[in-house]
Structure formats: C-alpha cells, structure tokens
Design brief:
It is a single chain. By secondary structure, the chain is of the alpha/beta class. It folds into 2 domains: 122 residues, Response regulator (Rossmann fold, 3-Layer(aba) Sandwich), CATH 3.40.50; 104 residues, OB fold (Dihydrolipoamide Acetyltransferase, E2P), CATH 2.40.50. Helix content is 29%, strand content 33%. It is built from 7 helices and 16 strands. The strands form 4 sheets. The protein has a 5-stranded parallel sheet. It is elongated and about 55 Å long.
C-alpha cells in the first residue's frame, strides 16, 4: 500500500471503450491518481487483481459480459481496493450498497462528480493507512469515547438504538441523532464491551435493551425497524432469552 501522500493506484474495468477512455482521461487529469491498468472485461480484471493486488481504487462498470461488476466485487481478493461503481443504471444501487463499495456513479459521469468520489475513496484509504484507533479509549458505565469525524466523542450507549454498516464506516443511531464512526461493523462488533449489543444482520447491531417489539423477524426500536437476518435468528433469540 502506498504512503498516504503518494498517488493512489487506480484500475479501470469497463467493456465500453468510450467510457473507458473517458475515465482514463479523468484519471490523467487528477494528480492524486496513477493509472495502473485499464481493462475491457471483468474476467481479465479479476485475473489482474488477483495477480497484482496492490491497487487502491477500482473504477468498475456493472453490466459486462461473462462476469458482472457486482459479481467481480464478491470475488475480489482481500484486502480489497476502494470500489467506485460506474454504470448507466440506478437500478443496481440497493444491491451495490449491500457490498463494500465506496461510491456509485451514474453515466455519463462529469469530472466534478468523479473527483468527489475520488476524494471519498482517498479519505477511506487514509483511514486504512492510519494506525487503528481503538473503538473505546475509556469506558465509564455505559459511556464510551469513539472516534467521530477525527474527534474522540463521548457517547452514552444507553441512548444508542442500533448500529448500521455504511461501506467502510458504521452509523450509531439514537432517537435524535446519527453518528458516523470510522470502524467497520465487524470491528465494532469485536470491540463493543456491552453484552446487550447483539449482531442481528450482516448490516445491523442492535441494543437489546431498546427493543420495543418483535414481529415477523422485524425489531421495533423507537421509530425505526431493523430486520433479523435468517442466519442470525437462532443465535439472536437464544441470546435474547439469556439476557
């Protein structure tokens, strides 16, 4: 991985030559990027990424023959690059954001929107390069200090209803506010010291003390509803009985 002030290594995968040339031009215009490869299909792209994993940003089309962009993301070697999807359709957005992607661009892409996506990827990459900040510097009762927007902020976890995955970040949701924390949901799950915070879905952790009702595997927490994933149901209900 490059130093944080070095150009980010970028790979383009798109079966449309005009779109590929446009993205190549945008990369050339951007001082913080260095083009590593520009490839015409997902199969070649996956092979390249498996053989040359030192890539920081992947600009990826979705609709391609043989291997779609979404399927390619599912097969990426770890740690995966920051993925920016570039497509002509908005219809894939819900499915795309269930994966770990950084941004979603709809063609035709203008340079201003492109740079916005690159800035987001750079911030995410910088966070990955930085020494890992602990989820909690100090625990006092049900309060933790967590890193929010580069500041350590004290949060009362009694007030947190649930935590939602957002790409490489997590969102702590209370009845009145949402806080973006620079930790993945997996990392947060491993570091939370409270037994009453339970993973119920690939995208959600809930505060079991704030569950108002359960109906058809949906949890009611104040004004919000959170689903219980099928693979989490047995473990969740067992923990609920033991709390």
């Amino acid at each position: 991985m490059p130093e944080s002030d070095s150009p980010l290594r970028c790979v383009i995968i798109d079966d449309n030559e005009i779109n590929r040339l446009t993205l190549e031009h945008f990369v050339e215009m951007t001082d913080t990027l260095a083009l590593t490869a520009s490839l015409p299909d997902g199969v070649q792209g996956l092979s390249f990424l498996r053989e040359s994993p030192a890539v920081d940003i992947l600009l990826l089309d979705i609709e391609m023959p043989h291997l779609s962009g979404l399927d390619l993301v599912r097969l990426l070697p770890q740690p995966q690059p920051e993925v920016i999807l570039v497509t002509t359709h908005r219809d894939f957005a819900v499915e795309a954001f269930s994966l770990r992607i950084t941004d979603y661009l709809v063609k035709p892409v203008d340079y201003a929107r492109f740079t916005q996506a690159i800035d987001r990827a750079r911030e995410s990459r910088r966070a990955a390069l930085a020494p890992a900040a602990p989820a909690a510097e100090l625990t006092v009762g049900n309060e933790l200090f967590v890193k929010v927007n580069n500041r350590m902020v004290r949060l009362d976890f009694d007030e947190v209803l649930y935590i939602e995955a957002l790409s490489t970040y997590s969102v702590l949701v209370t009845s009145t506010q949402k806080h973006i924390v620079y930790l993945t949901l997996k990392a947060l799950t491993e570091r939370l010291p409270f037994a009453h915070f339970v993973r119920v879905h690939r995208s959600y952790i809930v505060n079991t003390r704030r569950i108002d009702a359960i109906e058809d595997n949906m949890l009611q927490l104040g004004q919000y509803e959170v689903p219980v994933g099928r693979s989490y149901q047995d473990e969740f209900f067992q923990k609920l009985r033991n709390l």
